[in-house]
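Q: Could you fold this chain for me?
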Amino acid sequence: MKAITPIAVWICLMAATVAEVVIFYSVPTKNLVYELIGGLAVLNGVLIAVFSMNLKDEPRLLHYIILAPVILIFVVILALVFSLPILPA
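A: Sure. Below is the predicted structure, expressed as C-alpha cells.
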C-alpha cells in the first residue's frame, strides 16, 4: 500500500462526514435527507471495508460477494423509508 492511500481514504471519509452535516441542515425534505445520508454511509462502509480490511488485494469475485449484501441492505433501507407514512408538520 502506498503511503498516500490511507491519507486519500481519510480525506474521502472526512469529506463524506462534512457532506452529511451539510445535507442534514440544507435539504428540506426528510426522505431525501435519509436517502442521501444512507448513501454516504454505504460509501463510508465500503471505503473502510476495502482499505482497512485489505480487500483491494482479494479476487474480484470476493468483491462482488461482499458488495451484494451492502446493496441489498441499502435497498431494504430505502424500501423502509418509503413505506413510512409522511406525517404533516
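A (continued): The mean pLDDT is 82.
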